[in-house]
Amino acid sequence: GQNIDQPTEMTATEGAIVQINCTYQTSGFNGLFWYQQHAGEAPTFLSYNVLDGLEEKGRFSSFLSRSKGYSYLLLKELQMKDSASYLCAVCTGGGNKLTFGTGTQLKVEL
Amino acid sequence: EPEVTQTPSHQVTQMGQEVILRCVPISNHLYFYWYRQILGQKVEFLVSFYNNEISEKSEIFDDQFSVERPDGSNFTLKIRSTKLEDSAMYFCASSLDGGGETQYFGPGTRLLVL
Fold first, then answer.
1. Contact B42 A100 (CB under 8 A)
2. How many other C-beta atoms lie within 10 A of the C-beta of residue B73?
3. What is the pLDDT of residues B7-24, one digit of tens each?
4. Burial class (CB in 10 A: 0-12, 13-18, 19+), A42
5. Is B102–A48 a contact, with Cβ atoms under 8 angstroms apart?
6. Which of A77, B27, B28, B67 has the most CB atoms around its CB within 10 Å?
7. Contact, A62 vs A54, CB < 8 A?
8. What residues have CB less than 8 Å from A45, skipping those under 6 apart?
């Protein structure tokens, strides 16, 4: 089966840096995705890792260690609009299925 | 920028009724998906679809569910006889290809079964 764990909630200050961790145990691996989801809205794509290492994309970076079954999303220069749920999802199988974690609700405060 | 679109945005139905949720994937994408999210819970995979057939389905996707690509642009999810527990947000997604290609999600249809 698939198991994905991430913290339920985090709080950070505007302008700061926050790291959201995700650990996973899956059978098969086609890559790991991070999505952002505001309440009542669709998940929107943030980043994708399939090889070990760091992928940087503006204020967002994501890291993957396949041997450890571990990823993190790093958000820099936090803005109030970054308050949202951050979803870790692992892609597996020929059907390209995404298995999501429960999401980490990030609250950015002044 | 191309987007996945879904209709309707909200649907209210009586238990036991059939509903059809509609999606228009991004035009050059080849893989299509349905996911659902019960209020306050995580996003769950229902089914993936490629080359006019189901590639993979979850345990949730039982005989009450079916998918269809009736023409070159639409992708539908039918629930034959709705149950109270089918109340959720249903997201359609599409990707250019399989093998870890990014899936882009539509805005969702909020289904309420009474």
1. yes
2. 11
3. 999 999 999 999 999 999
4. buried
5. yes
6. B67
7. yes
8. A33, A35, B102, B103, B104
Q: Which residue reads 């659902």 in tokens?
A: B36
More confident residue, A37 or B70: A37
Residue at A49: amino acid letter? N
Q: Which residues of B touch A41 (CB under 8 A)?
A: 107-108
pLDDT at residue A50 is higher than 90: yes
Rounded to the nearest integer, the mean pLDDT of chain A is 95
What separation in angstroms does the CA of A2 have from each of A25, A28, B31? 6, 9, 22
> Which of A44, A98, A99, A102 to probe the B interface (max B CBs under 10 A)?
A98
Predicted local distance difference test score (pLDDT) of residue A2: 80
CB contact under 8 A, A96 and B98: yes
**CA dihedral sign of residues B72, B87, B93, B35:** negative
Containing A38, the helix (H) or strand (E) segment is none
Return the HEC string of B37-99: ECCCCCCEEEEEEECCEEEEECCCCCCCEEEECCCCCCEEEEECCCCHHHCEEEEEEEECCCC
